[in-house]
C-alpha cells in the first residue's frame, strides 16, 4: 500500500471529509482496505441519540408503541426494548433511566445492549398487555437503535447506553461486565478489577469493550468520567425539556468512526479537512492523551482515498462481483428476504475438482467475511460455497470462514457448513449498509436486476397497436422501437393506423405505452 513518500506505514487511519456530501473513514493496512465507516453528509444518523418522547399510539397486536420523538415518522418501540420498570405501577418515566435492574448479558462492541435484556424484560412485561403499560401522551426517555429506512420509522429503545472508546455506560445496570468477545479469562478478571477500582457511581453500570484489552486504570477512569459527564448532562436536559425533545446527540460521524476504529497499533492518521482535523485531534486528546500519534493534514489536490490506494477497494464495494484471486470470484446479491453470496472457482486448477473447489472456497472465505464487514450487510446471509465431497475439507472451509468473521464487530450468529455447500448466518447491521445507502432501484428493471428482452417488449407494443384505432402515439424504449421496426416493419405498415413513434430511454423495455395522439 502506498502511504506517503518516505513514510511507509503498515496501519493507517484515513479520514475523507473534503467532500461534505459524504464522510468516509477507513483503516488501511497490508495493502488493502481493512475497515470502513461511511455516512452521507446532510443526513446525519440519529443512532445513539437520546430523546424525550411521547407515546402517540399503542398497538397491542404488535406488542409495540409508536413514539413521537421529533422525527418526520414516529419511532417504533417494541415491548422487548421496554424497560421492565414501566410495567410496575407508579414508576415515573423520568426516573426509570436511573433505576437499578438485574444482570444483563451484553455485547457492547456491537452495542446490542437491548438484546441481552430480552429475558428480564419479557418476564416483567409479559404480565401485562403493552396497552396496560404505556398510554398515549405518556413521556419517556428513548434512544435510537436504528435509523428510519424504506418508509419505516426509527427503531427505539428505553434501555439506554452511552458508548465510549473503552467502556459502555449502562444507566439501567448497576453492575460491571466484560464484552463476551474478550475470551481470555485472565484479562476478563483483570478488567473487572480495574473497573471496580475506578470511582464508579453506585447507580450506574459499565461494560468494557474489546478496545479495553491491555489498557491501564487511568485510561478506564478517564473514559468513565467522560461518559458520566454526558449522562449527567442528560439529567439536566430532562428537567427543562418538553416532549418531543433531543436530550443528547451522539458524536459527529467523524468522531464516531474514529472512536470505533482507533486502536493503539495505528501508525499514522491523515485527515483532508480542517474541521475534521480538529475533531480527530480533540478525540485523541480526550480519549487517548497518552498516545504519541500525530494527526497529519492532507492538503494535496489528489483525493485522499486515491493517494492511499483505497478508492479502488471502495468502488468494489458498490459492485456485486468481487474477485478473490486466481480467477475465482464471489457474487453478492441483496434481496428483501436475505443476501445470497455465491462462490465461483473461475480459472483455479489444482488437478482435481475437490482440490480446485477447496482452494476457491478458502480464498473466498476470507474475502466474503471482509465484504460482509465493509458493506455492513445485515439480516440473513447465505453463502453458497462450491460443493465439497470430503468432510475434512468442508470443516476446513467452515473453520476458515468463522475465523475470518472474528474481526467483525457486529453481532453475529453463524451456522454450520452443510452438505450442499450452504452456510447461513445472521448479522446485526451497524448502519444503513453501504450498497443499500448508495443505490436506488433501476427504472428499467424495477430493481429486479433483469429486464424483459427487447423482442418481448416489441411484441407487447404490437399487441397494443393491433387493438388501437385511428391516430396513436407509441412511446417505448429505443431498442424496443428498433426491434419493432426491424422484426415487424411490414406488419406495422399493414395496420390501419397513423402511428407517431417517440423513443424514450426512461421507459422499461417491457412497458411500451400506446396512447391516443393529440391529432386524433
Would you kindly provide a written description of the structure presented here, covering whatever features stand out?
- The protein is of the alpha+beta class.
- It folds into four domains: 11-43 and 254-311, Nucleotidyltransferase, domain 5, CATH 3.30.420; 50-249, OB fold (Dihydrolipoamide Acetyltransferase, E2P), CATH 2.40.50.140; 318-438, Aminopeptidase (3-Layer(aba) Sandwich), CATH 3.40.630; 454-516, no CATH class.
- The protein contains 14 helices and 24 strands.
- The chain has helices spanning 93-96, 118-125, 130-133, 185-197, 217-240, 253-261, 274-287, 304-307, 311-316, 353-375, 391-405, 434-438, 454-466, 478-494; strands spanning 11-16, 22-29, 32-40, 50-59, 64-68, 75-78, 139-146, 155-157, 162-163, 167-170, 176-178, 205-208, 245-248, 268-271, 295-297, 321-325, 328-334, 339-344, 379-384, 412-414, 422-427, 470-476, 497-503, 513-516.
- The strands form five sheets. Strands 4, 5, 6, 7, 8 and 13 form a six-stranded antiparallel β-sheet that branches. The chain has a six-stranded mixed β-sheet with strand order 16-17-18-19-21-20.
- A hairpin with a 2-residue loop joins strand 16 (321-325) and strand 17 (328-334).
- The longest helix has 24 residues, at 217-240.
Amino acid at each position: 500500500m502506498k502511504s506517503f513518500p518516505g513514510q511507509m506505514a503498515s496501519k493507517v487511519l484515513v479520514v475523507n471529509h473534503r467532500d461534505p456530501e459524504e464522510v468516509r473513514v477507513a483503516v488501511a493496512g497490508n495493502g488493502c482496505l481493512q475497515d470502513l465507516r461511511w455516512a452521507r453528509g446532510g443526513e446525519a444518523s440519529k443512532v445513539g441519540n437520546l430523546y424525550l418522547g411521547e407515546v402517540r399510539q399503542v398497538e397491542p397486536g404488535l406488542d409495540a408503541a409508536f413514539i413521537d420523538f421529533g422525527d418526520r415518522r414516529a419511532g417504533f418501540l417494541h415491548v422487548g426494548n421496554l424497560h421492565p420498570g414501566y410495567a410496575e405501577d407508579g414508576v415515573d418515566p423520568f426516573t426509570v433511566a436511573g433505576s437499578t435492574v438485574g444482570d444483563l448479558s451484553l455485547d457492547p462492541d456491537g452495542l446490542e445492549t437491548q438484546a441481552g435484556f430480552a429475558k428480564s424484560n419479557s418476564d416483567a412485561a409479559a404480565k401485562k398487555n403493552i396497552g396496560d403499560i404505556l398510554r398515549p401522551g405518556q413521556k419517556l426517555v428513548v434512544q435510537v437503535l436504528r435509523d428510519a429506512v424504506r418508509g419505516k420509522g426509527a427503531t427505539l429503545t428505553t434501555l439506554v447506553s452511552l458508548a465510549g472508546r473503552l467502556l459502555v455506560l449502562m444507566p439501567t445496570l448497576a453492575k460491571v461486565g466484560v464484552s463476551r468477545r474478550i475470551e481470555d479469562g485472565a484479562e476478563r478478571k483483570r478488567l473487572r478489577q480495574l473497573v471496580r477500582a475506578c470511582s464508579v457511581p453506585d447507580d450506574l453500570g459499565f461494560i468494557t469493550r474489546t478496545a479495553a484489552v491491555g489498557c491501564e486504570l487511568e485510561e478506564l477512569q478517564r473514559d468513565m468520567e467522560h461518559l458520566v459527564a454526558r449522562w449527567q448532562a442528560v439529567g439536566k436536559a430532562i428537567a427543562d425539556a418538553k416532549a418531543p425533545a433531543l436530550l443528547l446527540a451522539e458524536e459527529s460521524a467523524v468522531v464516531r468512526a474514529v472512536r470505533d476504529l482507533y486502536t493503539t497499533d495505528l501508525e499514522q492518521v491523515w485527515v483532508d479537512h480542517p474541521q475534521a482535523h480538529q475533531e480527530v485531534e480533540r478525540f485523541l486528546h480526550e480519549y487517548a492523551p497518552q498516545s504519541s500519534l500525530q494527526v497529519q493534514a492532507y492538503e494535496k489536490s489528489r483525493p485522499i482515498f486515491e493517494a492511499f490506494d483505497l478508492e479502488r477497494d471502495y468502488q468494489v464495494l458498490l459492485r456485486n462481483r468481487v474477485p478473490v484471486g486466481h480467477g475465482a470470484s464471489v457474487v453478492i446479491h441483496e434481496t428483501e428476504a436475505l443476501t445470497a453470496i455465491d462462490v465461483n472457482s473461475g480459472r483455479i486448477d489444482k488437478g482435481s475438482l475437490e482440490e480446485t473447489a477447496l482452494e476457491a472456497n478458502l480464498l473466498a472465505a476470507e474475502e466474503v467475511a471482509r465484504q460482509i464487514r465493509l458493506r455492513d450487510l445485515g439480516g440473513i446471509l447465505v453463502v453458497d460455497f462450491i460443493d465439497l465431497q470430503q468432510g475434512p475439507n468442508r470443516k476446513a472451509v467452515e473453520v476458515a470462514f468463522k475465523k475470518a468473521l472474528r474481526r467483525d464487530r457486529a453481532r453475529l450468529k453463524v451456522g454450520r457448513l452443510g452438505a450442499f455447500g450452504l452456510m447461513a448466518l445472521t448479522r446485526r447491521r451497524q448502519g444503513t449498509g453501504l450498497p443499500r445507502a448508495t443505490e436506488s432501484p433501476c427504472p428499467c428493471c424495477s430493481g429486479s436486476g433483469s429486464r424483459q428482452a427487447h423482442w418481448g417488449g416489441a411484441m407487447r407494443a404490437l399487441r397494443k397497436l393491433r387493438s388501437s384505432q385511428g391516430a396513436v402515439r407509441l412511446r417505448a424504449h429505443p431498442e424496443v422501437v428498433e426491434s419493432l421496426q426491424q422484426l415487424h416493419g411490414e406488419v406495422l405498415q399493414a395496420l390501419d393506423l397513423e402511428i407517431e413513434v417517440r423513443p424514450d430511454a426512461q421507459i422499461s423495455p417491457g412497458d411500451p405505452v400506446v396512447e391516443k395522439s393529440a391529432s386524433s
